[in-house]
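quick one, 181 residues, struct below
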Amino acid sequence: MQEKDFVKVLSPRVACLIVSKNCEGKINAAPYSFVYPISFEPPLIGIGVGKHKMTFKNIAETKEFTVNVISENFAQQAVNCEEKIKFDKRIEKNQLHLEESEKISVPRIAESKAVMECVLSEVIELKEADHVIVIGKVLGVKAAKKDEMIDIDSMNYLMHETGGVFRKVGEKVLLERIKKK
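---
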């Protein structure tokens, strides 16, 4: 194995469609799987984004974005948003639908069963890396619920393994955790 295969060892990862917009109001959507929680308080999420990507440029410009978790119901459409076409045409071409966010001006994907509305908190530029870490403060969350709890099973999340290989969220495993006093 090569060093770059480390990503495969840390797979699968939740697949998300990041929606951003530029100062002119043009909307971009692009799939990412370098997405992870960073902090409960304040609620922060991290995204590894290529320095040259429109997603990074838009977020740096307007300071807002939505993180739309990809599920089976729109998985192929979401992945198709990485096609090298004019970025503001990706949503329309892939027959996705935008809906207004509650707390920010960037819309969310109507097909997504779990969405986080975020404002830019910080960008960490790593000296030797081809990606930056975009840290967003989560202002709002929309998710499917069952009995007042987030219903992960009903959302049919997809997890990205590598290339075009994805996996479904699997069986629930309950383990006892030792709480520190």
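Residues 54-62 form the longest helix (9 residues).
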